[in-house]
Amino acid sequence: MHDAVNLLGLDFGTTTSGAVAARGRLLRNVVTGRMEVADVHETFRSDLVYTPLQDDRLDLARIDRYLDDWLGVANLEPGHIFGGGALLTGLTARRDNAAGLVERIKRRLANALVARAEDPCLESWLAFMGSAAPLSRELPERMVLNLDIGGGTTNIALGKAGEVQRVGCLFVGARHIEMTPETYRIVRLSSQARELFAALD
C-alpha cells in the first residue's frame, strides 16, 4: 500500500501564527506491520501573521479567514487531509476564548491532533526536542540549555544526550507591552504586564 496523503500543521503563538502543508506516502512497515507515513515533503508554508486579538481575546473571525485562506492557497479541502496537528502556545493557549479556536480547527481538520500548551512544561519540552535535541545528541557529555523566547513566555529546558531533564517557564516575552511603532505610546498590556505596572506604581 503506497497511498499519497496530505498533512497540515498549524501553530498559533502569542505573537505569530502560521501553517505548513506536506504530502507523504502511507505504507505498511514490513517488519512491524504498522502503517507509517514516509517520504514527507513540504508543499506549502504560509507567511507568518500576527495572531489577531480583540482586546485580550482572540479575534476568531479573522482566524477563520486565515484558516480558509491557508487551506485555499495550499489547495487542500478538509475532507482530503489525512492528519496533522495544531499547537496553541504561550498566551494564546491561556486566552479565555482559546476553546473557540480549538473548535474551529477541529471543524476543518477532524483528524488533527490539537495540543493546547496550557502546561508550560509541555511547551518547553517541545521546544527542546524541535530545536536543541540534535545538538544535544551530538554532544552527549554536555548539558544543553534551550531558551525559547516567544511573545508571552520564555520556555526553558535543560537536556543531556537528547533527553530533557528539567523544564521551566517565565512570563517573559516580546508582546507583554505593545507599542505604536517608532513611538512610546502603549496600545496594549498583557494581564501580567498590568500586574507588574501596578506593583511598580
- The helical percent reads 25-40%
Instruction: Give Rg in angstroms.
Output: 19 Å
Task: Report, as a whole number of angstroms, the end-to-end distance.
Answer: 66 Å
Estimate what percentage of residues fall within beta strands.
35-45%
Element order: H for helix, E for strand: EEEEEEHEHEHHEEEEEH
Number of helical regions: 5
List the uncertain runs: none
3D structure, described in words:
The relative contact order is 0.13. This protein has helices at residues 60-73, 98-108, 120-131, 133-138, 191-200; strands at 3-12, 16-28, 35-45, 49-50, 53-54, 57-58, 83-88, 112-116, 143-149, 154-160, 163-170, 177-179, 186-189. The protein is built from five helices and 13 strands. By secondary structure, it is α+β, with helices and mostly antiparallel strands. The radius of gyration is 19 Å and the shape is globular. Strands 1, 2, 3, 4, 7 and 8 form a six-stranded mixed β-sheet that branches.
Quick take:
The protein is α+β, with helices and mostly antiparallel strands and 201 residues long. It is 26% helix and 40% strand.
Features:
single chain; 201 residues; alpha+beta; three-stranded antiparallel sheet; 5 helices; 13 strands; 26% helix; globular
Q: Which helices and strands occur, and which strands form pairs?
A:
Blueprint: E1 3-12, E2 16-28, E3 35-45, E4 49-50, E5 53-54, E6 57-58, H1 60-73, E7 83-88, H2 98-108, E8 112-116, H3 120-131, H4 133-138, E9 143-149, E10 154-160, E11 163-170, E12 177-179, E13 186-189, H5 191-200
Parallel strand pairs: 1-7, 7-8
Antiparallel strand pairs: 1-2, 2-3, 2-4, 5-6, 9-10, 10-11, 12-13
Helix pairs in contact: 1-2
